[in-house]
Structure formats: C-alpha cells, structure tokens
C-alpha cells in the first residue's frame, strides 16, 4: 500500500471508529434536516377550515371543478352541533362555521387572527357571489383568468437543504482538520511523520482527500434525503455544481480548522474555539433560518463569512436554477479565503505543545 | 545545549545518560534531524541530518519518547501504516509484530495496550523497515521488570545483527548492562564518555550509578 493510501486509511478508520465524531458530522446535521424539513413543510398560507352545519346550498351545489379549485384554500367539514362548532371557532381550532337560515348563508368567524378571518370571509363571499351569478342564468359580465408564474419564493426544503448542508460541511471539514493537527501534535505523530521518508505533500493531500470524501458523502446523503417525496426538494439543472462548490468550501473550512488547530493545545480548547466560530457563522450565514430580516450591520458582518457565500451559491445552483455565473465567483473567493487563512495558520504552526 | 560533541561507531550500542532536563531528548532530536542546530552540525551515517533528506530517513529508525500512534487503530493497523510509509510489505510488518511478541495483541487498539506492549509496538514500528541505525528515547521508562528484561533481550538482538543502537535512559543498571559506551550529560553538556566499566574504574566507585551521581550531583531535578 502506498503512503498516501495508508495514511488516508488510518484517518478514515480513526474517524469512523470515533462514534461522537460520526454522530456530530454525519447524523446530527441530518437530524436537523429531517426535523426542520418536516416542521416547515406547510409553511405557505394555511388552508381555511370551515365547519358546515346542515345543508348549505352554495356549498353543496358547487360545481365539481370549482370545488377542486377551492380545495387548496378551503377545507370543509360537516357537523350537526352548531354550539360546539362556534366554540371551536372561539378556541381558534377552526376558522369559521357556516350554516343556512331562511335562504341566508350565515358565517361566524373569530377576529383573533385578522388575516385568517379576512381569507375565510373572502372565500365564502366569492362562493356566494358566483352562486348568485349562476342563479341569474346569465353569462357573467366579467371573468377572471388566472395562471401561475414561476415560483421565485423559496419553499422551506429548498432553503434548508443548502443551508444545513453548508453547515454540515463546515463542521466536518473544520473539526477534522483541527483535531488532526492537535492530536497529531500531542501524540507526536507529526514528528514521527517528519522522520519517515515521505513528502509533506503526501500527508497534506491524504488529509484533504479524506475531508473531501466526507464532504461528498454528506452531499449525497443530504440530497438523497431532501429529494424523497416527503420533503420534496426539486433539484434544478446545474445542481451538480454543488460538488465543486462543496469542494472549495471544504478547503476554506479546513483552513479555519488548521488555524484553530495551530493555536489550540488540547482537543477541548480546539472544540471550544470551533464551536465559537462555526455556530455563530452558521446562524449569520442563514443555515438555519433566512437572514433577510437581519439588521444591516449584522448583514455587513455576515458578508465576510465563507459559509454565507457557500450557502447562497448552493441555493442558487440547487434550487434556483442558476449555473456557473453564480458558482464561479464564490468558488474563487472560497479558495482565496482558504489560501489566506492557511498562510496565517502556517505562521502559527508548532511542532510541540507549548 | 552547549558544545555537545560525540561520535557513535557503526554497530555500537550507545547510551546517553542524564537527569531530567539534561538535554538528552534535544540532543537526539538534533541528531535525528528534527531540529536545526544553532551552531555546528550533526552527521548521520556521514551526512548532515539537517535539512531533512528522505533517503537518509529511510536508513534510520526512531522511537520517540511518547508512543506516537494513530488514534483508534489496532496494533496491526499501526505497524501496517508505518510499514507503508517506508514502502515495506505487510508480511514484513506482521513478522515484526511477531518478533516483539505482539501477534496475540494484533487486534487490540493502542489505548488498550499495556505500557510494555505499547513500548514494544513503538519499537516494532521503529524497526519495521530494517534500519541501519536506531534511536530509542527512554524505551523502558514506566515498564515493569518483566517487560524491561524482555525489551533488553529484544534490543540486544537488534544490536547483535550489526545494527547501531542509540538510546537515552535514566536507568544505570540498564546502561551498564546494554551499552558498549555511554555519554553522561547534564545541563546541556557532555560530562564524560566511555565504556561503563572504564568510567567506574576511573572514578574509583562501585557502579555506574555512583559515577552518575558523582558527576551530576544529588540535587532534585525538574
């Protein structure tokens, strides 16, 4: 076996046998994806729920096509108990209760949530109006024609997948390179490798190779889970550009790990410093929730964070249908970041724990 | 370190003795090429050890003071990894494991090995590529008498096949028994060099330990 392969193997085995590391780098971010993906599945406007008491002609005689069209917006359930239904409205369990009394359609709603009250009133109004037009037997004077435009607003899963994946890659790459440096220094493997007839580039490329492999595994698992119908991520044309993007991101985050590993004397110190750097970076970079409403000064800070740019470029290529134009500048910037931070780490490098 | 000069002959078993903080490890590190000397040169098999030369490193074996093992790997995986770094076959690595009596422990991870087993594995990793010259930094520190004796046999065996062994130690009985010549160091200087028996005779004492104490004093060290 070559030196490169045997060092890579030693690193992979060391990682896979460290259950805590496997949990935090592979399982933990996936738990977030599974959980957030399920929680925010219906983050659009909720359907109006209406309880119908007895017969209501405008609802019962509604043409089938109109009923289907309304299905996305209105959910009608039947009940015989008006008092209880009104109580449900007061409690906010349903939006409104409807019944017919002497040819009048009666609607009772709660004003607690103005938006939902407005929606359910508008819906019922339109149903009654179109029934009225129908009743005159004349063609309506005005008609409304609708068609949907391409959806530019982002569904939760399309935002969560690139963001959480970026965070997972950032954690994996930075923790692994920091811990390798700290442990190998502490265990004197660095010295031992210096005294073996191998090139430093062999050691470095084995470390980079293993980190890249882990990052690609993370991408594969994330996309496999996010695209199952339950979560429903729609990949756009140039989604494969996420692979070179993640590769450049891995190098950038490895350089952060190298810097912290060069500074830290122990696992604990490295772990603490990484948490302090990676978690706020993930929040400010929109890995967990959109940062559109962040105050301007926080936004200004976040523009220097590599994860912010990786997340945005990943979202562009994964779910917004963008291509090289979005990915290339970010890849360049990530590589530049990696080069600068690695150069600083090299200056701080020490052979022995002070 | 201040003007340390010494020479080790081919095939010799050489001991560097000194109290804690005497500069033994630093001396070894300069000779091995881990550190650049501020002044002077260290010649290793006739060539300067600094800057680093992979061809030279192929001919020496090194055991560092603390066992340098990869995390979470078994004894067999450790020595196979080191064997691969030197381009040595896996069979040869397994044979080396047998030589140090660790075949039964081959699937035990480094942190589950006893102190003696870890030292033996560490020495096996240093010897896996059959080096001409071996450096061992306090190889018997922390071992029980059985493990020490077994290790002595192993080291004698290595030396008897014509290889040069340089070791540092605190144990005078060990040095007296194993070494052809010893250098006694303190405070970064070499105080005396010679075969243990000659030093004992020259200073008119009974053991190498007496020589050591006479030369380095009895104050506590760090």
Automatic annotation (TrEMBL), chain A:
Membrane-spanning intervals of the chain: 21-40, 164-184, 204-233, 239-260, 272-289, 324-349
Keyword terms of this UniProt record: Membrane, Transmembrane, Transmembrane helix
Main location: membrane
GO CC terms of this entry: membrane
InterPro entries: ABC-2_transporter, ABC2_TM, ABC2_TM_bact-type
PROSITE patterns: ABC_TM2
Membrane topology value: Multi-pass membrane protein
Pfam families for this protein: ABC2_membrane_3
The protein's name: ABC transporter permease
